[in-house]
Design a protein that fits this description.
Elements: H1 3-16, E1 33-36, E2 44-48, H2 79-90, E3 94-97, E4 119-120, E5 123-124, H3 133-159, E6 166-173, E7 176-177, E8 180-181, E9 186-189, H4 197-206, E10 211-213, H5 224-229, E11 237-243, H6 250-267
Parallel strand pairs: 2-3, 2-6, 6-11, 9-10
Antiparallel strand pairs: 1-3, 4-5, 7-8, 9-11
Helix pairs in contact: 2-6, 4-6
Length: about 280
């Protein structure tokens, strides 16, 4: 690479990084999280870590084409809509992420290699290249911690009713990754606590669905949000991953909301579900 080309590249990256002496989020940006039905009566907290494809205005779309934010790499397609409908049906509180996982992934620990990705699914993320520690800390402070603080507050509000809440996190996955097909209709992710996951898998399979047990990702390897807020506290928890091709449109969202509506009331009746227990 010529000296001029290298200089131009460095200037472009600098232009995409926010001056760390000012706040990342400005007055015209949305909040780093959204709370739906915060006073919902049901002792279940719904979460959607990858609900949004938005980027803070100061980051100029991370140097990416607008079409990138319609892809699975930017957010979990359809997951927010399913989450919101389920929240209303169950009368359960819901916390949704306010910004794209490409800015910072809220379902990864701080410092994890996938927390702020420089490239994903063969797509480089210009504004994330060689990001300095101060800029990383800005995203952690203004986006990551506020979301997880909102989760903690929502759980505290449910605890105040003298019933141990449970956590149910909703995601979606791409039907293939590279050359690897992912044939499941839905995956159920869990670590050590089987209280929701095992009966949920059985109920979904009874509906005639192709259900992945810790597929296409394993909750035993990495499921940060449900682990830190649920497993560590002894609260029943699990996450689902719905095939995104099945919730791309209103008909698919309605179908999957109906499936979950038919199952979740029975899940909530499971004996011992609202008990603190560490596995």
């Amino acid at each position: 690479m010529s000296q001029k080309a290298n200089l131009d590249r460095n200037i472009k990256k600098k232009d995409l990084q926010v001056n760390s002496t000012i706040k990342l989020l400005q007055s015209d940006d949305p909040a780093p999280f959204e709370e739906i039905n915060p006073d919902g009566f049901t002792p279940m907290l719904l979460l959607c870590d990858h609900a949004s494809s938005r980027v803070p205005a100061a980051l100029s779309n991370l140097g990416l084409e607008a079409s990138t934010f319609e892809r699975h790499i930017a957010y979990d397609i359809g997951a927010a809509a399913v989450s919101q409908r389920l929240s209303m049906f169950l009368d359960a509180p819901l916390v949704l992420a306010g910004f794209s996982r490409l800015v910072i992934d809220l379902n990864r620990p701080v410092g994890h290699q996938e927390s702020i990705v420089e490239a994903i699914d063969l797509t480089p993320i210009p504004a994330n290249q060689d990001l300095d520690e101060t800029a990383k800390r800005q995203r952690i402070t203004e986006l990551f911690y506020p979301y997880h603080d909102a989760v903690n507050r929502a759980l505290t509000q449910l605890w105040e009713r003298n019933t141990a809440p449970v956590i149910f996190s909703i995601h979606s996955f791409s039907p293939s990754y590279g050359n690897t097909p992912r044939p499941w209709d839905i995956g159920v992710l869990w670590n050590r606590d089987p209280r929701i996951a095992v009966p949920l898998i059985d109920m979904l399979r009874a509906c005639g669905l192709n259900v992945g047990d810790n597929e296409p990702y394993s909750g035993q390897q990495l499921a940060y949000t449900i682990d830190v807020h649920g497993g560590a506290a002894g609260l029943a928890n699990c996450a689902i991953e719905i095939n995104q091709d099945q919730i791309r449109d209103a008909a698919g969202i309605t179908r999957w909301t109906a499936i979950l509506k038919s199952i979740m009331p029975d899940i909530l009746k499971i004996p011992g579900l609202h008990r603190v227990e560490r596995f």
